[in-house]
Specification:
By secondary structure, the chain is of the alpha+beta class. Helices cover about 30% and strands about 30% of the residues.
Amino acid sequence: MSTMKKLLLCLLCAAILLAGCDKLPQISRSTPTSSPTATPEPPPAWQDPATYRAAMLASTADDVQQLETPTFYHIQARLDMEQATPRIHAIQTTRYTNKASVPLDAVFFRLFPNKPSYGSEITLRSVTVAGKEAALDYQSERTAVGVALPQPLQPDELVDVEMEYDVTVPVENVRGYGTFNYQDGVLMLSSFYAMVAVYEPDGWNLALAPDYGDPVYAETSLYAVEFTAPQAMTVVASGSTTARRDNDDGTTTWTLVSGPMRDLMLVASDRFESSSYAVGYVRVNSYYLPEHQKTGEAVLGYAREGLRAFQQSFGPYPFAEFDVVEGPIYAGGMEYPGLILLADQHYEIGGEYLEFLAAHEVAHQWWYSLVGNDQVLVPWLDESLANFSVVYYYEHVYGTDRASMVFHNYVSSRYSQAREEGRDGVVNQPVEAFSPEQYGAIVYGKGAVFFQELRFKLGDALFLDVLRAYLEDRQYKLATPDDFLRVAEEVSGQELDKFYAQWILEAE
C-alpha cells in the first residue's frame, strides 16, 4: 500500500472514532467502575455502640446500644516520660448530641488539668469543627472552654469536635487530693482529657469544687482510647483493655474501651504487681506496690466481698472488670467508674479503716458511677449514700453487730460530735459551703445517718426496695435529691417530705 493510501486510511479511522466519542459512557473519578453508585464507608469503630460491648458482661452488653444519645470519645494519647515532668500529647474526637430542647451555639468542655491546685496545664493546640478552627471561650478559671459552632446545633443533632492538645503532669503535687500526679513511680491521670460539661435548663454547668471536693459532674459516655506508654509500664484504666501492641520505639499502645461511664481514669506504673479474682463473670484486679503485696491481696478480698454484697443488695455490676489501685494520694480513697484508688499510706498499716475505705469506694460504683449526680453542688447524694452503704458490706461479711460498731466508729460519731459542739449543718449544700471539717461531719456523717434513719423508718426490706428502684430509675442517668425522694415515696407509699426536710434541709 502506498504511503498516501495509508495516510488516508488513518484519517478515516480517526474521523470515525471522533464521531462516536459523545456516545461513550462518562465515568466519574469518584464512582467505582464495578457499581453505578458508591457504597458509603462504614463509620469508624469508635462511633459504633457495638464496639463497647467488649467492656460489659454478656448479660448487660445490650446496655451500650440502649443508651439515649451518649457522647462518644475517641482519644489517642502518647505519654512522654523523657522530660523533667511527664507530658501527654493527645488527639481527641468527641461526638456530642444536643439533648437540650433549644439550639446550642457552642459546646463547653471541662479542662480539669487547668485547675490551679493541680499544678498542671492542658494546652489546646487545635480545635476544629467541620474542618475549620473554632473560636474558644475560656471560663471558670480556665477549667472550662466553650467551642463555638459554625451554625446552631439543633435538638437531637450531633456534632464532631476535633482537638489536639498537650498536657503536663505535676511531680509530687501536694495540693488537693493528688489524683493528677506523678509520685513514687505511679502516674495518676484523673480526667486528663477534655470532658463535655453538663447542659442544664439554665445553661452549661461550669461550677468548680474546692480542693476537698470531687470536681466531676458528667453524663454517661462511651470511651475508646489508644494510650501509648513505655513498655515497662502497666496501664490500668476504667473499662477493659482489648489489645496491646509493642512498638519498635520501646513503647506499648494499649487499646481500651469503656462501658457506659461518666468519667475515665488512667493509672500507670512500672512498679505494679497484681492479683486477680472472679466474682461471677466480673474480673476483679488489685494493683499494688511490691512492698505491699500482703495488703494488696487483702484489698482484693475487700473488693471481692464488696461487689458481692452490693450486687445482692442493690443490683448487678454491669462491667466486665473492676480495678483497685494503690496510689500516693492525699485522700483516703477516690472513686472512678470501674476503678478505685486507695491511698498508699493505708497499705503500709492495713487494718479496719482500709477495709472501710475500700467498701465505701466500691459502693460508689452504684452511687456515682451507675447513678450520677452533681458532685459539686449536691455532693451528699452520692457520698452520704455510699458511706451508709458500707453497712451492707459489713453485714454481708461479718454480721449486724460488727456493722453497727463500724458505722458508729467511722460515720455516726463524726456527726454526733459536731452536733454536740454546736456544729450541726444543712446537708443539702454545695461543697464550697462547708469547711473541710464540716464537709466530713455533715456530708459523710449526717447524710449517712439520714439513710440509716430512713432504713429504720421503712424497715430493711422496704428500704432495699427503694434503693433498687432508685438504681433502676436512674441507672446511667443523672439524679437529683427530688428523684430519690420521688422514688422513695412511690415505693414506700409514704409521705416523706417532713422527714427528709428534718435531716437534709434543716439544722439545729
